[in-house]
Amino acid sequence: MTHDPNLPAPAPAPAHGVPAPQGWPVAPPTQPFQQPTQAPPSHQAPPQAPADPALHAALSAVRAEVAKAVVGQDAAVSGLLVALLCRGHVLLEGVPGVAKTLLVRALSAALDLDTKRVQFTPDLMPGDVTGSLVYDARTAEFSFREGPVFTNLLLADEINRTPPKTQASLLEAMEERQVSVDGTPRPLPDPFVVVATQNPVEYEGTYPLPEAQLDRFLLKVILPAPERAQEIEVLARHAAGFDPRDLGAAGLRPVADAEVLARARDAVRQVQIAPDVLAYVVDVCRATRHSPSVSLGVSPRGATALLATSRAWAWLSGRSYVTPDDVKTLAASTLRHRMQLRPEAELEGITTGAVLDAVLATVPVPR
User: Is residue 89 located within the same domain as residue 227?
Assistant: First the structure.
């Protein structure tokens, strides 16, 4: 899989446990999904309890199931798992044909979650997403008809092709996990994750997401084109009869469910973070606000998001404490879409990834 040029090269896959996510900023420790064998540095809190091996095994099985349908997008699978553990939302960016839709469908099948897809178009109305009141002539009353947002995994396909009015219809759902129609709030299912996609090469006739909505996405994951060997494997699967519209025929089966995710989220909340690592998260986010290339830096919401994703990554790596490397690993995917560059910086070819690299290189790391 082609590596994101704004991220450091991934480390080799470990010898055991779940394979290191290819293309993710930094690979997990050499023994993911296991407790460390030596004491952590003094600035880190010691593990309080061993991780539940059944939870890690379930998430390991999810990776294996998704791999039956999707080739070479391990980074995106990692991002979606982190988002599910943090109850956050994901913005997927990639050219057409890199399995964005298939990835969401395969993940929902492996987790036995309900999923719905909405194709965002210029004529889409807010009620088409959230639902609306419908008049019933038999009872002479209005009843609420749920929209596709009432699901576990909502695939908002090409979200930037619909006007801001319809884009804004997702704001309450993403933040409050509810939909208010006619003054009545209606809760959404749990878990509820929005996976929005956008095409990075076609901007004519699109409506770029405003900063307020970009800030609602926990992660931005870039899906590159697969490498040559991976693309050959994709074609070989299709030549052998693989049908992306029939995941059951590909052998995908549920290996986890919402209850497993809920238990895993509880475990993630028990992951400890030392005061100096907590301060490191704040210092990284504050440094983006003072960069001369940035007109809008990372908000406090971004800092809380980085804290959450770092804890989830630490738990996935088999630790009950967060290290500065966890923060560095998730910084790009968590923060780059929350920053706005100055026009002169964009003209000079500076990217948010380059700004984050400079920030991470200058902010003192706790030892």
Answer: yes
DSSP 280-303: HHHHHHHHHHT-TTEEE---HHHH
Residues 6+ apart with CB under 8 A from 90: 79, 80, 83, 193, 194, 195, 196, 217, 218, 219, 220, 221
Contacts of 283 (CB under 8 A, 6+ apart): 363, 364
Residue 255 lies in a domain: yes
Do residue 214 and residue 278 come from a single domain? Answer: no
Number of separate domains in the chain = 2
The span from the CA of 326 to the CA of 315, in Å, is: 10
Alpha carbons 334 and 67: distance in angstroms, whole number:
24
pLDDT of 31 higher than 70:
no
Q: What is the pLDDT of residues 223-247, one digit of tens each?
A: 888 889 999 999 999 999 888 888 8
Report the alpha-carbon distance of residue 136 to residue 125 in Å, rounded. 21
Q: For residue range 56-76, what is the model confidence (pLDDT) as tens digits?
A: 888 888 988 998 899 888 888
Shared domain check, 106 and 78? yes
Q: Is residue 295 located within the same domain as residue 336?
A: yes
Domain around 351: 271-367
Contact 23, 78 (CB under 8 A): no
> Is residue 307 a part of any domain in this protein?
yes
**What mean pLDDT comes out for the span 339-347?**
91
Does a structural domain hold residue 10?
Answer: no
Question: From the CA atom positions of the chain, what is the Rg in Å?
Answer: 21
109 and 205 co-located in one domain: yes
By CB atoms closer than 10 A (0-12, 13-18, 19+), residue 70 is: buried
Do 77 and 168 belong together in one domain?
A: yes
Helix, coil or strand: residue 115:
strand
Exposed, middle or buried: residue 286 (CB in 10 Å: 0-12, 13-18, 19+)? middle
